Every structure is written in C-alpha cells, then in structure tokens.
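Hi both,

Apologies for the delay on this - the queue was longer than expected. I finally got the flavin-adenine dinucleotide-bound model through. Below you'll find the protein sequence and the ligand SMILES exactly as submitted, and right after that the structure tokens for the full complex including the ligand.
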Amino acid sequence: MTDAAELRRRTRALLDAHPPATTDRRDFLRARFDAGLAWVHYPQGLGGLGAPRSLQAVVDAELAAAGAPDNDPRRIGIGLGMAAPTILQYGTDEQRRRLLRPLWTGEEVWCQLFSEPGAGSDLAALGTRAVREGEDWIVNGQKVWTSSAHLARWAILIARTDPDVPKHRGITYFVCDMTDPGVEVRPLRQITGEAEFNEVFLTDVRIPDSRRLGAIGDGWRVAQTTLNNERVAIGGTPVPREGGMIGKVAATWRERPELRTHDLHQRLLGLWVEAEVARLTGVRLRQQLAAGQPGPEGAGMKLGFARLNQEISGLEVELLGEEGLLYDDWTLRRPELVDFTGRDAGYRYLRSKGNSIEGGTSEVLLNIVAERVLGLPAEPRTDKDVAWKDLAR
Ligand SMILES: Cc1cc2nc3c(=O)[nH]c(=O)nc-3n(C[C@H](O)[C@H](O)[C@H](O)COP(=O)(O)OP(=O)(O)OC[C@H]3O[C@@H](n4cnc5c(N)ncnc54)[C@H](O)[C@@H]3O)c2cc1C
C-alpha cells in the first residue's frame, strides 16, 4: 500500500541518491520518473506507483522544499495534459514504454494535430486522409492552429481512414513523428503579435501502423479522452488563493491607490469573489479526478475560466487607463511556453481572447454542459447517419 508516509520515504531516498544541487537536471528528472514519483497515480514502471492521484501533492511539496528541478509543465502542457492520458488509456505496452518517459521529462515536446481549416468545433468533419499501404499509413492533409508544432518531436493526430461511413465512425488516431519527411510547419501570427501556433501541412507522411492509438475507426472515442483532459488542463490548473489573473489586478490595485475609483472597486470585489468560487470549484473537480477520468464537467470549469480571464484582464486595462493601452513588444516571437498571466496588462488582455476559443469554444462547451451534464435535449444533428464523403463541404 503506497500511502503518504511511504511516498515521503521514497522521495527522500530519491533526494539522497540524486542531490538536486549536484545532479544534472535531466538526470534528476529521469531518476524521479524511474522511482515512480513523476505522476504517482500512473502504473509502476511508467513513472508512477499506482497510488491515489491526490498524493502527488505530498511528493511535489517534498521536492520543492529540497529545491529539486521540475519538468517545466507549462512548456509541455499538451504532452502532460492530453497526450499522456490518451497513451496510457489506449497505447500498447511498447508505445507506453517508448513515449511516456521523455514526454514527462520534457525531452520530447508534443503537439496536437486535430483542428483543420474546415473542422474546428465540428472536429468530426475533418478531411485529412490516412490510407493504408502495407504496414504503413500514408497521410495527406492540412492542420491549423497547432500550438508548439515548431518545438514538437511528436504529435497526436486524428485522420480519416474511412470516408464511406458517417463522420464520427471513419476516424483513426495516430502518433505522428514531426521530424518525418512530408511534415511542414509554418508559423501563424496571432493577436498578441507572437506565433505560438502554426499551420501544419502533411504530404505523403508515412506513419507505421505500430503508431496507431486504439482500433482502426475508433479515433473519435480515443479523441474524447484527449478533449476531456484538454478542458481540465486549460481550465483546471491549481492556483493559490488570489493567484492567476485576479492576483495581477489585485496587486495593481494595492500598489497604485491613485488609480482607484468606487465603480472599479465594486467590480473588482465581484470578480475577486467569482475567481475564488472558480478556484474552489477547481479543487473539487481535482478531487473527482482523483477518483477517475475527467467527465464533461471539465467543460464547465473551462467556460468559467475563459469568461473570468477576459473580464478580469479587461478590468485591469481599464484600471490602468492610458497606460493600459501600451504594449511592450510587437515583434514576431516564437514563445517556448504560453503564460496567460505573463508580461504586461496589454498582453494579458489580448491573450485572454484565445481562452474562449482554444480547447473548444465557449458556445460549444455550453452545448456540452447542456446535453451531457444537465441532460437537456441535444441539438438536431442531421448529418449523423450520412457517409462523410456525401456531406456538403
Ligand atoms: C490559442 C489557440 C491555440 C490552439 N491550439 C490548438 C492546437 O494545438 N491543436 C489544435 O488542433 N487546435 C488548436 N486550436 C484550435 C481550436 O481548437 C479551434 O479554434 C476551436 O475548436 C474552434 O474551431 P474554429 O476555429 O474552426 O471555429 P469554428 O468551429 O468555425 O467556430 C466559429 C464560431 O461558430 C461558433 N459555433 C460553431 N459551432 C457551433 C455550435 N454547434 N453551436 C453554437 N456555436 C457554434 C463557435 O463558437 C465560434 O464562435 C487552438 C486555438 C487557439 C485560439
């Protein structure tokens, strides 16, 4: 039985064998993974010990107190939050052993090749084709808004393998090597001036069948695991009280009394309370997660996160007046990590606009909450039984 005391003992043994002050960062992370202290709820041999997920905090606290390096989770969010749980659930033993360790240590960055120019909210309409040729699949198509593709070694990819069946049924899920010939990554500049994301063109990319995740034609079901985890990864990250976006504006409020007005005070207090409610809801969601996979409730969390980020960063720009309109840098940058609350007020305001689009738009998440959480009648879906090849595009 791996309880908190046992985890503390193992963490101290790791620190004794690999003192953070004298151990190379990568070696320390590899040793932590091999000791089962990376994500304690994962199985033994895959970075975990099969312990309750809630006990991860025990390990993290011990390691932080000892000044141990972490795996820079903001840089590898797609791998940790989305690819890993999907590989764990649907991968073969060989895939899990090959892919999870460098994913967790950050030696291999992951990206997500899902959205296409004609398939975002209606993701199941996607047109990228994968055609079987012997032991390989030949993939052709275009993906878009692919965050971190310029840094990535691997991608989770969904492609159409059977155009003759309705759209949800003819999709298969693959792991794509971003260094393979035929994968072309081009930057897309966004409202902040940076290019976090990319267009990705796939031309005759050869993916071995051994890199398929899940059964042929079952890709939509596999993708649900990724998408449910994505919403929790975007909206459900733990924050301390008065952390995140509300912490930024509250700090400005305290440090700059000359900016205060009664009206802004009332609005700030209202948003502070809402941010605290959202934070506590996140704590509850993570407790549910500790007991199993995330369900559609994650959609509600992500909805609130996007709305609050936009309102709070908007209030900060108003509070700062003319100063809030200044923007530090419009040169095209390729950031290594995405920090919603980083840089200045102008950046935070502009970046938060993407929060209600990425990981599913707020309108689509409202539909999910309505149908799958509240049990309201579903939207009419006239194309449900029509072969994908016969759909209007
Ligand atoms: C910062 C950022 C990073 C991203 N990173 C990635 C990534 O790494 N990988 C990836 O695959 N994708 C990524 N995306 C893409 C993202 O998932 C899509 O943009 C999103 O799903 C919406 O799709 P779309 O852009 O095609 O808009 P559309 O689906 O065309 O939607 C247009 C508008 O119509 C509304 N709408 C559509 N359908 C409905 C409906 N049924 N009911 C009500 N309203 C509806 C939408 O809410 C929206 O307002 C990223 C997006 C952003 C902004």
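Main takeaway for now: The CA atoms of residues 305 and 322 lie 27 Å apart.

I'll put the files on the shared drive as well.

H.
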